[in-house]
Design goal:
- The protein has one domain (27-132): Four Helix Bundle (Hemerythrin (Met), subunit A).
- α1 (7-16) packs across α6 (111-132).
- 38% of the residues are buried.
- It has 6 helices and no strands.
- It has helices at 7-16, 30-36, 41-62, 71-88, 91-105, 111-132.
- The chain has 133 residues and is an all-alpha fold.
- The longest helix has 22 residues, at 41-62.
- Helix content is 71%, strand content 0%.
Amino acid sequence: MAKYATAQQLDNEARDAEPAEHFSGPVIDLVHLSRQTLGDSALEGELLTLFDRQALQFSTRLGASMAAGEGKWRGDLAHTLKGSASAVGAFMVADAAAAYETAARAESPEAELAWRRLAAAIDRARGEIAGLL
């Protein structure tokens, strides 16, 4: 049975992890988002709200310690998150989700570090979204 991390443990891990040490873009690329929505600010807000909710839900599910045999569904969630993040311009989250997807599918020892980086990227994106909405 998987052990679930507490919210405080996730917060501590996210603070300790570098979301994407090589990433230098904005947390949310608003120009990209505007292009995706054809400049519809109401739609932008709706998409950011939906992404924020999805990121929180996925973060909660992925925050549990990985047990053997869970790599596929974890990779699937990370892949979905990667696509959603890319759509709204949260490219740091997309990059971190791609790295986690690869590590999770392989059930690699690097999956834990990849998860901490993804959790930190999600935290940054959600903080940015909260400031925008």
